[in-house]
Automatic annotation (TrEMBL):
Similarity comment text for this entry: Belongs to the 3-oxoacid CoA-transferase subunit B family.
Source domain of life: Bacteria
Organism placement in taxonomy: Bacteria, Pseudomonadati, Pseudomonadota, Alphaproteobacteria, Rhodobacterales
Gene3D superfamilies: Glutaconate Coenzyme A-transferase (3.40.1080.10)
InterPro entries in UniProt: 3-oxoacid_CoA-transf_B, CoA_trans_fam_I, NagB/RpiA_transferase-like
Database matches in SMART domains: CoA_trans
SUPFAM superfamilies membership: NagB/RpiA/CoA transferase-like
Protein name, UniProt field: 3-oxoacid CoA-transferase subunit B
GO terms assigned for molecular function: CoA-transferase activity
Keyword line: Transferase
Pfam hit, one: CoA_trans
Amino acid sequence: MPWDRNQMAARAAEELEDGMYVNLGIGIPTLVANYVGDKDITLQSENGMLGMGPFPVEGEEDPDLINAGKQTITELARTSYFDSATSFGMIRGGKIAAAILGAMEVAENGDLANWMIPGKLVKGMGGAMDLVAGVKKVVVVMDHTNKHGDSKLLKACTLPLTGKNVVNRIITNLGVLDVVDGGLKIIETAAGVTEDELRAATEATIVN
């Protein structure tokens, strides 16, 4: 059975270690905040917040507390706030250990496309280009295929790139893959998903 969005987010949370400063991208990655648990993780949002808490319970939302995706969030006792210049100074200065991002496409060499589809309305590129260039580890969380059943893990991206050779690990609804020399390596499959099923859904080269 493929993982759902929350299971993918929970699996991504397993990538985090005590003491890490981590940026969560828009979409499924924002759910990771709900699965940090007892780990000492500081979540950063590029709109100027360090120390994001989980999503609020219904009825306790604060419209002034939002993440980069304009979703309401909660603060912690140690939360701090700052302007965008300071926020991107952290990112560009290599102070953020990891970014967990969504994607439209990932290529077998680690190229990432996650900011626009030509011809569609784009609100802006956001902070993704700075993040993939400035953080130490990039984890992508995404559906393995699009709504037509076509693989989103490709030999080469067809959409405009966010960054070249930047992705380290990919977590999809079918499993976990690492970008290695020559292609992608299967690390784990979702419960009930076979390696053969994952391979069949992947255009990118799978290496042993």
